[in-house]
Amino acid sequence: MLPAIENRLATLPRELKPLADVVRRHYARGASVRPDGTVQIARAPWMGPEAFALVLYPPADAAWVSAYGQRLGRPVPEAYARVLTSVNGCFVFGLALYGLPPSLQDRAPRRDHSLEPLDLAAANGYWAREYRGAGEEFHFGGRTLSATENVGYFLTSDGSVRSRRKDGEVLREWASIEGLLIEELASVEAADRDRPPGAPTPWSFGREQS
Q: Which of 48, 135, 180, 197 has the fewest beta carbons under 10 Å from its own?
């Protein structure tokens, strides 16, 4: 394994260990580290010549996390702030964790064509409204459930995590982000494993919003 990737995985906190495990399982399918530190795993040529099924973005600056709360009038929950300062969002087989796009953190947005995570501010300012009953829960990600439906991930005020349909149904609930990742990463991995070679991906979440 490339030292840059091994070192990155070694620094991830416990709640992101399931993510590190997925990277290790699929590393043999191809790996790359972009100049900005973005880790890419498992080449996906059916999506594009430079596409990968797993993308882990570099850690967010702690100042960005603080500034988010100042701009939005609502701080990032501590449990997700720890995630952001280790992985500023990711995309794994149709599962996405949102982040703070670097180009939106400066006064003058950069146009350097770097890969960026889906925007946490847009998720909580706009996308969360599509989920009935979510109220003040913190929207931090989601995944493809079927060819026609995506579900959203939400942190509650007591620190638990929920998977919600847009009609308001709560599909699952976990005690932590780690618990969610253990189950949901296994599910999206299985969906990819069942895909016939060369067939279109069974997941779409993240790509249509990026």
A: 197
